[in-house]
Each structure stands twice: as C-alpha cells, then as structure tokens.
Design goal:
Layout (H helix, E strand, L loop, with lengths): L1 H12 L13 E5 L5 E5 L6 E5 L4 H17 L3 E3 L1 H4 L6 H12 L4 E4 L7 H13 L2 E2 L4 H33 L1
Parallel strand pairs: 1-4, 1-5, 5-6
Antiparallel strand pairs: 2-3
Helix pairs in contact: 4-5, 5-6
C-alpha cells in the first residue's frame, strides 16, 4: 500500500523515482525560516528593529519535519538543518554548515515563508549558483530557474574569456 501511495505522490510531484523503485537515491536540502525573529525597517536612516513573532519555535520546527517526513517517505535522503544544526551554534556557524550541506545535495526545497528569512535567501542564491534543482512550483521555481540560468551564463562567459586569453597567450 505504501509503495502505491508513494507512486501516486511521485506522479503528482513529478520527482525522479526513488532508490527502492530501482533508481539511485537523491539528496534534498530543506531551506526555510528557522528562527522566529523578523526585522522591520524603522525608516530610511533608523535601521532595523527586531520584532518577535507570536509563532512558537516548535511551529517552525514542525514545518521542517513535515517536509522531512514527506521526502524521506518518497525514498530521498533529506538534509534538514533543524535536525542537523544544534541550537547552541551561532548564526555564522550554522550558515557555514548549511552552505556546505548544499554542495552535496541534488535538490533544494524552499519551505513556504522562506522569503522572510535572510539565511534562506542566501541558501536560495547559493543553490542556484551550484545548479541544484528546485522542487518548488510556481513563482519560486521560476525565480530559481532564472537565477540558475544567469549563473550558468556567467560561468560560460568566464570560460569563453579564459579561452580567448589562453589563445592570445599562445600567439605571443
């Protein structure tokens, strides 16, 4: 029954088939808003004010765990920063670890509400730069694909510039 349910979910989400159906296992990184802090501009020159949201931390954790269980059930290896990063880590340590995790993943899933997170925005840009596949649909997917195409074009232009430079060096 679970295999049939998984196949139905697979068809709905058009993901690659998981390992236990005879295919290689893929890795997914979950990205989203982890902390409950948000920053509100105070004006043009006054800076930012920290605003504590009323949502408890367990609610934010629950969103990550839902997607973790969903993709794990689909047969994917999930890198969930909420489970992997200890709460005693500083923000900088956590971000360094998360960006390293992105480098070993094939996919990224942006949990709804990710745009409100500075860290998730950094992860979004890094994942596009690395050429990961975004599993979201709609606006997030379009933004990701556009950014990934920009990074790919930049890399190709740099490669062409290097080839021209090498050719000029050979002539001299």
């Amino acid at each position: 029954m679970w295999q049939t349910l998984t196949q139905i979910l697979y068809n709905m989400n058009s993901l690659e088939k998981p390992e236990y159906l005879g295919y290689e296992k893929r890795t997914i990184y979950l990205s989203g808003k982890v902390t409950k802090r948000t920053y509100k501009p105070l004006g043009k020159t006054k800076g930012l004010k920290v605003i504590e949201k009323t949502l408890p931390r367990w609610w934010l954790w629950l969103k990550f765990m839902f997607w973790d269980l969903f993709y794990t059930g689909m047969g994917y290896k999930v890198y969930n920063p909420v489970k992997l990063i200890h709460k005693s880590c500083s923000y900088d340590q956590a971000m360094r670890t998360c960006l390293q995790l992105l480098e070993i993943c094939d996919y990224i899933y942006m949990i709804p509400g990710w745009r409100k997170s500075n860290g998730a925005n950094i992860e979004f840009k890094k994942a596009a730069e690395l050429g990961l596949t975004c599993l979201n649909s709609g606006r997030t997917k379009r933004e990701f694909d556009q950014r990934a195409m920009m990074y790919k074009a930049d890399r190709e232009i740099e490669g062409i510039k290097q080839m021209i430079k090498d050719m000029n060096n050979l002539k001299n």
